Amino acid sequence: MGMEEIEILLVEDNPTDAELTMRALKRRNLANQVVWVKDGAEALDFIFATGDFSHRNPEDLPKLILLDLRMPKVDGLEVLQRIKAEENTRKIPVVVLTSSKEDRDIVESYKLGVNSYVSKPVEFDEFIDAVSTLGFYWMLINNPP
C-alpha cells in the first residue's frame, strides 16, 4: 500500500482499543486504508512527515484522524492543537475517540477545533457500532472542503 492511499490515521496507545477500532472499520471495508500510530509524538511525525516518517510526502495528508486523548509522550490535546494551528492540516477532520467523558476534555477539544468528540462505549457491540458508524460517516457521507 502506498502512502498516498492512507485515508484514516488512528492515534491510539491501547492495542486492544486499536484492534477493536480496526475490526469496526473492517466492517465498513475501511480497515485497509488505516495507519495506526501508538502515541502523540508518532502522530505528529506522521502528519508533518518528520522523524521516522520523514520519507513521506507532507502533502499526502490523511482524510480523517481518529485521536485518543490520553497518550504517552504527547497527549491528544497537544496533537489536536498542532494540527489545527497549521494552515495545511487545519482542514483534516479530527474525531476524538476517548474513554474520557470529562467536561473539560470535551470543552477543550472543541476550543481547539475538533470536529467530533466521541466517548468510547464500554460494551463491545456498542464500541464496534460507534466506530463503524464514525468511519462510514466521515469517509463516505461527509463532504470535506
| Integer-rounded radius of gyration | 14 Å
Broad shape: globular
Overall residue-averaged pLDDT value: 92
**Termini separation (Å)?**
25 Å
SS class = alpha/beta
Quote the beta fraction: 5-15%
Task: Output the number of helix runs.
Answer: 5
Number of strand segments: 5
User: Unreliable stretches, pLDDT < 50, 5 or more residues?
Assistant: none
Oligomer state equals single chain
Could you estimate the helical fraction of the residues in percent? 40-55%
Biggest sheet overview: 5 strands, parallel
Strand order of the largest sheet: 2-1-3-4-5
H/E element string?
EHEHEHEHEH
Question: Which key features would you list for this structure?
Answer:
single chain; 145 residues; alpha/beta; five-stranded parallel sheet; 5 helices; 5 strands; 40% helix; globular
Structure summary:
By secondary structure, the chain is α/β, with parallel strands linked by helices.
Please give a structural write-up.
- The chain is an alpha/beta fold.
- 40% of the residues lie in helices and 14% in strands.
- The protein is built from five helices and five strands, in the order βαβαβαβαβα.
- It has a five-stranded parallel beta sheet, with helices on both faces.
- β4, α4 (103-111) and β5 (116-119) form a beta-alpha-beta unit.
- α1 crosses α5 and α2 (40-47) packs parallel to α3.
- It is globular.
